[in-house]
TrEMBL record:
Keywords: Exonuclease, Hydrolase, Nuclease. Residues 129-316 form the Exonuclease domain. SMART domains: EXOIII. InterPro entries: 3-5_Exoribonuclease, ERI-1_3'hExo-like, Ribonucl_H, RNaseH-like_sf, RNaseH_sf. It comes from the Eukaryota. It comes from Populus davidiana. This is Exonuclease domain-containing protein. One of its GO terms (molecular function) is 3'-5'-RNA exonuclease activity.
Length: 339
């Protein structure tokens, strides 16, 4: 199975009617770069079809950080637009419609830019790629977005994004659930048009990983040179196993370990006030949030922006949590000072 090329800059096209513009737009695109006066370049690559130990690292005090460019950055080359959510599912039929293209982004990479200065403090990593991952859905998984970040050049490699249809809920309950969750974003229609059962999403996800040479079932099913990065432990520790149980699936081996970005952030920056969530980290780093909070794709992109900033500041991201092979329900947390 091949997947559409999805660069990772703007947010998916949510509405079936391209004339109905996404109503919760945020400020224009804000690049990750901390030095807007320097020439920037896009590090994202267009995708093709297709056990670490904690390292000691000197803390970087938050007050010394140079803030990201302001919202009205005169050097920004384009305004931020929501991504076409039909496009992320390979179902956009309006890619040649100039009105639609003007309103919705179809290139995931453009919002992620770094400058030469961002490499001055960057350090080698334990992994070649980070899979930024942020689920939505507290009863069953509703949205499954994953963004590949190249650990060396801090560029976006590719995006996987699927809406997930619950299997243990009545149709009436699903409709109510989706309206309450996604109706406020104006994307409930695209959810109904594109959502797939979790087992199909997982199959497509594994095919996508294989096309990027990040996973092979014949090699034990673990990730190859890559690690999941989450904002907290809940996504991989709790919700994925729960969904696998509901969907009568065995927990895949690639969900045996992950990086909780909040733990690395806390130990690297040692902030005066704990950063207990994505928005706090972004606020402390002075990175303006784009998109809509609790829309999984937007949250994944914002978490990726925090990750890229941390890489540029010299943070090393090791595995922070690992399941016990003999008892996958038990997890060893590898940081003493953790959130």
């Amino acid at each position: 199975m091949s997947f559409p090329r999805i660069p990772l800059s703007r947010v998916p096209s949510y509405l079936h009617n391209s004339n109905n513009c996404f109503h919760l737009l945020h400020p224009p695109f804000i690049p990750v770069s901390k030095t807007p006066t320097l020439p920037t370049y896009q590090t994202a690559r267009t995708c093709t079809d297709f056990n670490s130990q904690t390292q000691a690292q000197p803390p970087l005090s938050l007050p010394s950080l140079i803030p990201s460019p302001p919202v009205n950055n005169p050097n920004a080359t384009h305004r931020w637009k929501p991504m076409c959510l039909y496009h992320t599912h390979g179902k956009c039929t309006k890619i040649d419609d100039p009105v639609h293209v003007e309103k919705f982004n179809h290139d995931c990479s453009r919002d992620f830019q770094v400058s030469a200065a961002d490499f001055e403090r960057k350090r080698p990593q334990d992994f070649d790629f980070f899979l930024v991952f942020d689920l939505e859905g507290k009863v069953e998984i509703l949205e499954f977005p994953v963004l590949i970040i190249d650990a060396k050049n801090m560029g976006v490699v590719d995006l996987f994004h699927r809406f997930v249809r619950p299997t243990a809920m009545s149709e009436e309950r699903v409709n109510e659930y989706i309206y309450n969750k996604y109706g406020k974003f104006g994307v409930d229609r695209v959810w109904h048009d594109t959502a797939l059962p979790f087992n199909e999403v997982l199959q497509q996800f594994e095919s996508w990983l294989t096309q990027h040479n990040l996973w092979e079932k014949t090699r034990g099913g673990r990730l190859n040179r890559a690690a999941f990065v989450t904002c907290g432990n809940w996504d991989v520790k709790t919700q994925v196993p729960h969904q696998c149980s509901v969907s009568k699936l065995k927990l895949p081996p690639y969900f045996m370990e992950w990086i909780n970005l909040k733990d690395v952030y806390q130990n690297f920056y040692n902030p005066r006030n704990e950063a207990r969530g994505m928005r706090t980290m972004m606020s402390q780093l002075k990175i303006p949030m784009v998109g809509s909070h609790h829309l999984g794709l937007d949250d994944t992109k914002n978490i990726a922006r925090v990750l890229i900033r941390m890489l540029a500041d010299g943070a090393v991201l090791p595995i922070t949590a690992r399941r016990k092979p003999e008892s996958p329900g038990s997890v060893n947390f590898l940081y003493k000072n953790r959130i």
